[in-house]
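[Meeting: bench + compute handoff]

Bench side (C.D.) handed over the final construct sequence. Compute side (W.E.) agreed to return the predicted structure before the next meeting so the bench team could plan truncations. Sequence as handed over:
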Amino acid sequence: MSTTDTDPGTGRTKDPATAKRHIGVSADGELGEAGSQLSTAPVDTAVPGSFGGSRAPGALGWLTWTGREVVGWARWFWRQLTSMRVALILLFLLSLGAIPGSLIPQSGTDAQKVADFKDAHSILGSVYDKLGLFHVYSSVWFSAIYILLFVSLIGCIVPRTWQFVGQLRGRPPGAPKRLNRLPAYATWRTGAEPEQVREAALKILKQRRFRAHIEKDAVAAEKGYLRETGNLLFHIALIVMLVAFAWGQLFKSEGNKLIVEGDGFSNTISQYDDFKSGNLFSTDDLTPFSFNLKKFTGTYERTGPNKGTPRTYQADITYSIGAYGKEKKTTVKVNEPLKIGDSKVYLTAHGYAPVVTVRDGKGNVVYHDAVPMLPLDPNVTSQGAIKVMDGYKNAQGTSEQLGFSAFFVPTFAGAGKGDMFSQFPALDFPVLALSGFHGSLGVDAGIPQNVYQLDTSKMKQFKDAKGKIVKARLLPGETMKLPNGAGSITFDKGIKEWANFQVTQQPGSDWALVGAFTAIFGLAGSLFIQRRRVWVRASTGADGVTVVEMAGLGRSESAKLPEELGDLAALVHEQAPTKPDTDEAEAAAAVETDPDAEPSVPAAEGAEK
């Protein structure tokens, strides 16, 4: 028994070029159906330059010729669009087109950055605007690539799926006439009957999970259908991912809300600090729920190289679903969001909200609230603004508005030990620095303002009798007096904390994840599984002895195919062992009769006798 890539007639090893030529000839001529359709990839056909041929005279001839041309070019375009190379080109263009969306500010994400970019780059900004680079994912060219890729994948999958289903329902094709022309080949002579050899081969191949059947004088078997299954799954998964991403972009919503301890939030658009959504999103898509921030807990590393790094970072909240839902308690942590329906509530930021009390010259409280401060560095050095818009009258009894520019540090280094910067993010030595203004805050003009900044264009700063600006650094419980009986502001001992929550609603994300994993597994199957066919022919030779031939053919050249064929041939050989030639049998009998006799040495293969 031998498993080689040799010519059985001469015993010589085939030249690679000759082997390829023989394989090609047999595939076109002798292999026929046996060597075809190892893949469901569409076959390209030659397309002539003109599809209509000669045009007949007259208007009818012109219309007929034009119709044939239009149909011909449409078919040609469809074949190109649904080919694998075009799908890969479109996929590359899609990934290439997404690069500007990550490098250039997008109007849907941050309109202010887009405006700043246009102000800083007048010429380049206008070019980007005309090319749609400030809204890449909703631009015409990106949508065209997206839709063409979607159509290409569908047009590629549907015919291949039907063809593959037909192959699954069919049977492996019969053996070609000359098995010795196949890449992997083995042959031997046996004393077993041809029917016994075929039955044994059929049983062995089925045990090895081949689809096998007996056709005429040979057993035809095939294996590796998961390769095409993986290929189809990969393309289907790409379609699922495209649909999921498109669905998510059209119906998504994302909003942020800063909440101070003790305050709450209801999931309506008016409650958000900022909110953006997809083009097809509506307010009816918002999940009805509400929650209250009871307490924020943050602890930090005190020593070592990670000093100041958060150890505990969590928000204890109570929430309810719907208008009459039962209140529940939970804890939201970083990367552990609260899931309510299709919405997820993430904890994204934290800071401090000093409680201040403002009184007028008569001692009446005109403002008392916790004021959120925005962090400027990892140690939570923060700044903000205190705005008293109503209820205040100055010493002359005239209604005014007050504004205080505030600077807060949770851990102050101490007087005379540097600038107003925090040394640690915890509340070890809190200090609030204030400077006051009076006049008009400009909030009545109808122009939106930043709640954390003061517009002092219509205000005057408080100054003392010597003309110096009135400002102070306050510890908890201390009060800053305003000049000329204008009142006072007190830094209360109660310091609250705030947490920023991001509420997202991203439909289709689960399907996108499923599609991604399916694409990975499908691609792995299409790359590492080889579809191959094996034939076992058992026929009676001219001398009446059964000749067994085994051959294998794969979709592509593989070193494992001859190895697998050798293993199968060894199993079949156990059921149908080699029958020795007559000369060898006589020599063996002579040795048994005369043990001292020397065995005859056969002539070298290919030598003349």
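W.E. noted at the follow-up: Confidence is low (pLDDT under 50) at residues 1-29, 44-49, 597-609. C.D. will use this when planning the next construct.
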